[in-house]
Specification:
Layout (H helix, E strand, L loop, with lengths): L7 H28 L2 H33 L7 H22 L4 H25 L15 H49 L1
């Protein structure tokens, strides 16, 4: 496939990180919903935002490859449609958190759980449905020259995701501390009056 084949080293790691972000978001949401964990809620939000970013990378790089491989940018087949649905659910999570009002965190957490249910459909869709998308066995059949580059790419993208998640969590924690300080300051000012 020539130069366009190089998209594989970007597209597959981004798809992996879309699914990883969704699982981490769902885990944090479970901790928040059933344990009241504020940290779990912050982890869920941070992971969802990363999932939106890496999902967008999947949804842009995939059609670029598809145009060269299939002659069309998009087919409404199971893998592509379920991946789009997964990305839309994470986007809905982030939008609900930003604009959902007082019950936004609980609503968003429920969305994260629905998104996690979509992951097996995304992964196994090429086995269960007729698909033009490559099967899940592509990685295991890579040639020796491609295998090392692929695993290095996957490792580098996962390391990048980890650094971004840690940075986003630090920002979210700082925002929480700032809000707590503002509340304390308001209480002190009220006592003075």
């Amino acid at each position: 496939m020539g130069l366009v084949q190089k998209i594989f080293y970007f597209h597959v790691p981004c798809a992996w990180l879309l699914m990883l972000s969704t699982l981490v978001c769902a885990s944090g949401s479970v901790a928040y919903l059933f344990g009241g964990s504020e940290r779990g809620d912050r982890v869920a939000l941070s992971a969802a935002e990363l999932g939106v970013v890496f999902g967008m990378c999947v949804l842009v790089s995939g059609p670029l490859w598809a145009r060269a491989a299939w002659g069309v940018y998009w087919q409404w087949e199971a893998r592509l449609t379920s991946s789009l649905l997964l990305w839309l659910m994470l986007l809905a999570y982030v939008l609900a958190r930003r604009y959902g009002g007082s019950s936004a965190r609980r609503l968003a957490a429920a969305l994260a759980l629905f998104a996690a249910i979509d992951i097996p459909l995304v992964y196994f869709s090429v086995r269960f449905f007729r698909s033009i998308h490559p099967s899940n066995t592509v990685v295991s059949t890579l040639g020796p020259g491609m295998r090392g580059a692929f695993w290095l790419s996957l490792l580098a993208f996962t390391a990048l995701w980890s650094v971004l998640l840690a940075a986003r969590l630090a920002v979210e924690s700082a925002q929480t501390e700032l809000m707590d300080l503002e509340i304390m300051l308001d209480q002190v000012e009220e006592k003075k009056v």
